[in-house]
Design a protein that fits this description.
Blueprint: E1 7-13, H1 14-23, E2 26-28, H2 30-40, E3 42-52, H3 62-70, E4 74-79, E5 81-84, E6 90-93, H4 97-107, E7 113-117, H5 124-132, E8 136-141, H6 152-157, E9 160-163, H7 168-171, E10 172-174
Parallel strand pairs: 1-3, 1-7, 3-4, 7-8, 8-9
Antiparallel strand pairs: 2-10, 5-6
Amino acid sequence: MFYRDERLALFIDGSNLYAAARNLNFDIDYKLLREEFMRRGKLLRAFYYTALLENEEYSPIRPLVDWLNYNGYTLVTKPAKEYTDSQGRRRVKGNMDIELSVDAMELAPRIDHAVLFSGDGDFRPLVEALQRAGVRVSVVSTIRSQPPMIADELRRQADNFIELDDLRETIGRPARDHAAND
């Protein structure tokens, strides 16, 4: 699937990867994730995309974002929008699809292989465009959760599908109790 001399870039849809790993009941160790893909090829960039609530005193994702920023990841963030849904529940919206897609297309001439950590079917046109530019695309997500976290059309479009659960031993650590966060 990977060639030692190929130039790699990782594109991590933070909230999507978090949800997939959580559904599989493990947490991602981002130090191990980066090391794993450095072994698989020449890792040029590891992007991590997430929206942040700016007005909160403490955000549970802030320590992770700070750590990633100092440990070889390129952080791409934007303010999340907070709203109340029709049932009166507080919701947060922060879609990073455009930012991820623009970065991937800009980097395409300099990479051989893009690794997309997302199961979002909205990325299918991006995968197709990267392939037309001569870039191989692997998608990391899971079909082992209920329901599966990867859109069928994204999985079919990708050159390779990597089951996140198969990476558990390499990049995972046991999940902390998330009940307090739900």
